[in-house]
Specification:
Layout: H1 12-22, H2 24-41, H3 50-79, E1 83-88, E2 98-103, H4 105-109, E3 112-113, E4 119-121, E5 126-129, E6 131-135, E7 140-144, H5 153-205, H6 213-222, H7 240-243, H8 250-270
Parallel strand pairs: 1-5, 3-7
Antiparallel strand pairs: 1-2, 4-5, 6-7
Helix pairs in contact: 5-6
Length: 271
Amino acid sequence: MADGPAPTFNSRWDHIVYLVAEFKYLVTGLILGSIALFLYYQPSIPTPPVWVGATIVAWLVLGIPCYLGGVAIARWLRRRNWEEVHHVDARGTDGDDIQKHYVPPQTWREKTVDGPDPYPINGGTAWAVQEYEYMEDIDELRVKGVWLSGLEDTQLYTSKSMMVDMHGWMLDQIEKLADTRAKWSRGVVQYEKKTVNDFAEARERGVTLDRTSGRDVFEEVSGDDEDIPSLDADEMPSIDDYTGAGARTEEGLDEKVEKAKRDRERVNADD
């Protein structure tokens, strides 16, 4: 058995509905009276000062761009001394093959290198690693480079881009060659018809054809085909178009191989 009476209303909205229903004439009179007073006096909102509108317009014009510019400058000031690290994994073992990270100098100096060291890129202004893992709970960074410079993932991506461009270039050349073959097929038919017609006309007149008539007809039919496409290897895209440098010398590669061997021996000795 309940200690007090049962609640009459479930919510405040039920209470308001009850009051309006009980005092409907009073509520109606208040509403009509308010409308009559508004129409009689016709109150107006006071005009704000001129400087209020000018301030709002100035904030809209200058505030947002200045805020965005300030955020960009603050981020740059915060990261200006940070190390730029590119996580490049051409093996596709991770979800994203290419990621860019900004690492604080202290964290980069205290990083843990599992295997080969990171290799410099972009003229030594950034670093590239094959594996990148930052454990936030213990504030530790683990990275891994590659043993040989020839195995750099950036070079693999460059070679992949080169192969794609070469494939597209060859498809374009083959399409042009197919058009040229169709043109020459039509030209051969026209050449044969024109030669037969000229020979028949000469026989009817009882004259002989000029020695250069065949050449003239051939040149007339063939036209100017100096731009016939070819699949010459010298015209294909080369690696120099992507790297801007020549091939690596054998001496430089041997030196890097020896350095990689020494690094591997050092790592094995530490283990």
